[in-house]
Structures are given as C-alpha cells and as structure tokens.
Amino acid sequence: MPFDDQVNLWVVQSEGEIMLPRVMLPIIRGGKNGWFKLKDLVITDREITGSAAVNPFNNPKVRVDRITGTISIAGKAGNYSGRCQRYDPATEKRAF
Predict the structure, then answer these.
(1) Exposed, middle or buried by CB within 10 Å (0-12, 13-18, 19+), for 18?
(2) pTM to 2 decimal places
(3) pLDDT tens for residues 87-96?
(4) Contacts for 15 with CB less than 8 Å, ≥ 6 apart
(5) How many CB atoms lie within 10 A of CB 4?
(6) Does 2 score more than 80 pLDDT?
(7) How far apart are CA 72 and CA 82, in angstroms?
C-alpha cells in the first residue's frame, strides 16, 4: 500500500540516526524520541547506506544516493522512496 510521509536523516562522520515514516514502525520498537540509530553505516562519495535499528527483528535497509538525492528504505513493513533536501541549521533560513 503506497503512503506519503517524511523521513529525517542525521549523519555526522561515522554516526547517524533516522526518523522513519510512522507507517513503517512496529508496535514494539526501540529508538529515542522517534529516532533510530543507523547500524553498519557506510558513507562514500556516491552513497550513504545502513540499517535502522528498529528492534531485533526489524532493521530496514536505508540507501541515500548522494548524486541524485534519492532515498530508499526497504523493510518488513514495506518500502519507501523519496527525495532528500540538505539541511544545515547554521546556514538555513527559516521558512516562516
């Protein structure tokens, strides 16, 4: 079943966290304030990959294409794809 939602991704050096679409989250899950650590995080010039540590049985795979800006998430609750926008709070102006 298709769905629309927002994904937030935070990556600094070799660490990262992700806030997944709610529809992809099981009732029993870890995380902190909606954020899940990215395991097996690999950052190259072309892509960012890893898996979201939702719970011991559910670790959706995350891939961000750094050239095109596309993001894809594949997990037990379904698949998500979208387009990323870079956000730097130090340089971004507020929308309102």
Answers:
(1) buried
(2) 0.83
(3) 887 888 877 8
(4) 37, 38, 41
(5) 8
(6) no
(7) 7
Token pair, residue 10, equals: 């935070």
pLDDT for 74: 93
Tell me the CA end-to-end span of the chain in Å, nearest whole number: 33
Retrieve residue 96's tokens. 């309102």
CA atoms within 13 A on the CB side of 61: 2
22 — phi, psi (to 5°)? -60, -35
The CA R_g of the chain, rounded to the nearest whole Å, is: 13
DSSP assignment of the chain = -------EEEEETTEEEEE--GGG--SS---BTTBEEEEEEEE-SSEEEEEE-SBTTB--EEEEETTT-EEEEEETTEEEEEE-----TTTPPP--
